[in-house]
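Hey, resending since the last one bounced:
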Amino acid sequence: MARKRIREDEEAAIDITPMMDIVFIMLIFFIVTTSFVKEAGIDVNKPEATQATKKPSATIFIAIRANGEVWMDKRPVDVERVAANIERLRAESPTDTIIIQADKEAKHGIVMEVMDQIKVADPSLVITVAGENN
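The structure tokens again:
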């Protein structure tokens, strides 16, 4: 009789180790495949757009402040160094779209210099200037 009780107790146990392995593997998969968007690192007062359309997500953001500061990858960048920084960022995460977030008080000349530097880095890049509705 003692043997019957021992067998019943052993058969009732459920091993959840394989299920936990699958859950952890799925967790690692989702963490690795998640893409993160890099913001320029500062808030700008963007002008409002009347005919805004949604653009595909980009991994490179350039912010231009009202005082003419250019920010990329959460740090200030000299206008002449924008092309080199774009090449470095594209090597890390390839993209064909760059979004410029310019303050509505920013000088037009600075925005054009940044756009010229983007074209120097790669003429095939798509440049999007973000407004309030983008």
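The mean pLDDT is 79.

Sorry for the duplicate.
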